[in-house]
Amino acid sequence: MPKLFNYIFVLLIFFKSILVADELFYNDRVIFYVDNKISNFKIEKDNKTVSLDDLNTILIKENVLKIEKWLPMAKPTDRNGDVYLNRYFVIEFIESKENLYKLIQDILSLDEIISCEKIPIVRPAFIPDDELWDQLYGLPQVKAHLAYDLWDIEGGEIPGQMDEGEIVVAVPDIGLMWDHPDLVNNIWQNLGEDIDGDGRVLELIDNHWVFDPDDVNGIDDDDDGYTDNFVGYDPAFGDNDPYPVNSYHQHGTKVAGNVSAVTNNGIGLASVGYSVKIMGVNANGNEAEPWYLTHTAPACLASAQMGADIINCSWVSGYYQALDDMHQVLYNEYGCIVLGAAGNGVSNGGPSDTTDFEPRYPAAFDNVISVTAMGPNNSFNCWANVHETVDISAPGENIICTMPFDNDNPERYAIGNGTSYATPLTAGAIALVKSVIPNASNEIIISKVIETADDYPDMNGSCSGQSIEGLVGSGQLNIYRAILATREPELLVTNIEFQTEDGSSIKPGDTVFIDFNIGNSPAFLDAEDVTVELINTDSNITILSGSINYDDYFSAGYQTEGQLIITISEHALLGNIYGEFLVEASCDGESYSNNIPFNIPLNFNQYGYPINDLSISQTVTVADLDGNSLDEIYFSSENLMYGTWVAGFEVDGFPFTANSKISTVSAVGDINGNGDLELVFGTSGGTLYALTSSGTEYLVYEQQDSIKSSPVLADFNSDGILEIVFISVNSNMSTLFVINGEGQDLNGFPLNITERIISGLSVADLDNDMNLDIILTSTQNNVNVINSNGSFRDGFPYETSGSIEHAASIADINNDQDLEILVGDLNGDLYVINKDGSLITSSSMGGSINSGISVADLDDNGQFELLFSASINEQHDNIVLHAYNPFSQSEIFGWPISLDALSFSEPIISDLDNDMDLEVIITTLSGKNYIFHHDGSRYNNFPYIIDGDSILVSSSLGDLDNDGDYEIIIGTLSSLQVIDFQQPIGNRFSWNTYRANNYRNGYINLDLVELEGENNNIISNYSVSQNYPNPFNPITKIKYYIPKNELVSIYIYDLIGKNIKLLINKAQPAGNHSVHWDGTNNNGEIVSAGMYIFVIESGEFIATKKMLLLK
User: Fold this and answer.
1) What Cα–Cα distance (Å) separates residue 729 from each residue in 325, 359, 712, 741?
2) pTM score, two decimals?
3) Cβ-based neighbour number of residue 7 at 10 Å
């Protein structure tokens, strides 16, 4: 084995509930799904070809029998999200296919096919016809229905029955109504007392069950010490009938039905024991008190002496030596398997009680199986007792039981709670196992049940603050695995580790060493001639070393190791790569096989990530709050705001706990003028927080309504300090706030608005009057503009045709020096609106516009495209990503692009790989993170697929480790993913974060976009960008373009016209240039914060722009 680094990926495959070996598939058919964008797909008249030529080319040599709809009656409205049932089709072949997996891969290679897979053979688990089956949650929970299926019941095999003999479970308890209709056919009949030799000791006479009169003779015919003990005995009253003295003596009858109620008889209950026999032994001699047992010891001994195989003790006692001694005799001398109830709480009160951690007897004795009780859904609800002597758990809460009945109490079934009912369920299971291997030792029989139990989450939990780990036994009873353990081995591949030679995460092109353990589960049959082979691997896998033959003898519990080697294609998509282990062996001359699937996590994960078990529904924020030159990631899950940085370490002071769920994206900026950044966000409870870099509260602003959209930071009063703009909403109206860093409202605010605004807001100076404007979009189809003094802008609202779910984007996309408002609505209409509320242009894009709008010049032609996702039709079954020019009303070449699922994420645009071209990042609800080149082609290895997850938010970008490449940060509904992109970052300015910047104002200065890239063929005139950043502290950059060699002068002035600094005064060649201003004057002194103007002169060209210096 080569020497490898310790950086590994561990995949634990733990098959204890249902074995993969029993999951069989058809080899003569596949099912496939046609992409929603294919509107004219059909099966041709021959039923062997379709309207896709590429698919026909694959199938023409495969001897197709027929192609048909999977669900012919599926309606167009029958869908799971974006998956429509009427778009699934089945191909059936004339004969089985040895190369079925390769054929599936060939079909999947077609762009028109979204999925193609094998079809499992559905083998129905036997479901008994007992009328209360659907209420017996405990039986499916212990996999009884699957265990039944191991017998050919329809062919006449009956679980619990044997060719010779029978298995008998004694119930020493408070009587047994042995003639109960749901018990009588499973009642033990002592044929040692059958003196008339008719094979029975019970007779149905006048519709009543009685002891066979011809067998009643008052003699102990079988010499077991008990006279005429036809169905058991009553040591308490000294007679041969364990029947309850009245219908209030219920407990024994309730217990017995959980051992072995007659199953599949059309009435009442089913049971794990199915047909094993029940011996009744009354242990209560107090007719007036049905809740205490007076004769448990003689009842247990009588059970053993009458030949019981298993004794069920659903009662508890204190410790005394004599009782212990007797139970050891029951096990060691009589060979009985004894079970005891662990107890029902401190006060024996059942579900209303609390768990006791002290032992109860006889359950805690050696050689007694102690059983504690669980509830529905594999839960442990902290009322049943636990102790280190407990061996196993089983359902015992809200259990339907057989009841003794008479004319006064006619109910034949009732609910029972307690370990009293978990214990007989386990006793029936042990009896069923013994019926399969009757000659096995008790130790082996017990091991089949105890060692095949299932882990369940609560077994590692706590009750009343005290851990129960190790106190509830081996797990929950699983009778299916217990029976399997009597028939075959269980060879599992576990502890799978995927390692690379350099210790990094597994990437396309890597050689991967697959280390694993191979072993036989405890209690299962021995195996030999074991082989492990890689099969059915993904087409992106090349097998270098694909099988191992073992000379070892795999006895129960035996474990060894193995290693296989593969390579991953350089073109494989990120996400999980599928493969299977085929384990084959022989067992007692019979062949055995088990297919075990695995997934190789193919990713560029940044070290320390992902962080799992988080639900992230807001776009994460990337910022260097603490000023250490390393970006941090800030994200929320429920009411916690987390901060992490390089290697996944938590930022000091985080997570921060808010008073309610955090409901917005965070904005970042200096809101108090101290030069430090604050993190600003809102909650569903109406609180706005501003946190310092150490996670402490700088500002807590409370109001009554929910804050649903990101706050925006902007300087409204031109004092060089950012204010906070946010909106709250209730069921009827919204309130717009503008506050300063001290929590004080600015004049004109708060402003009540009679519309529900949940999509957010934008801030920009629409009309170049040096006053900021607030742009609002609403679900009532309106676009509004609020002036900086809180008044409504004349000419607004602008009414759209549909609800607007996303905030407006703001940019000058037509180069007229005025900003435009860009919005899309759920009717699929796209609008470009002027600063005065007039419409510049609109376009109908189809069903609905689902995301915010980003702006970029993807094809570098000097015209700007709007990027957004949209549904083509009202059914949302065709989702595309647009790169749309609203003026020419056309897409650029290569666009739009089909997506696999809905996307609500605002596209993120950046030069990810320093090729001077922009890439586009977008996420979908199906858990995919796509990256597209500027020409619409997919970036190699993408989309990055996060199996079984959903992404509601945009990706974010940052360089967490300062290595010169981006990390792509994605919040999902279950984790925080960080992809190390491993390409040098380009320097093109773009819409590279949610809402264009961390102020979240939705505004992008396209002068910077136009000048980035140094494409001299595009720019033919003088051009000057807005300085960046703006506002700034302490340095900003000014970029400009001159079309010819010329003298260039750039001056800085304050607002009263005083010359502050001459930045440059020299001849420069034609092309792109830039210059920095560090906030100093001509004397090198730092100037005060405030508004400044820079003037650029080149030949006859003069341009001026404003910039804001912060302190």
Assistant:
1) 73, 57, 16, 22
2) 0.66
3) 12
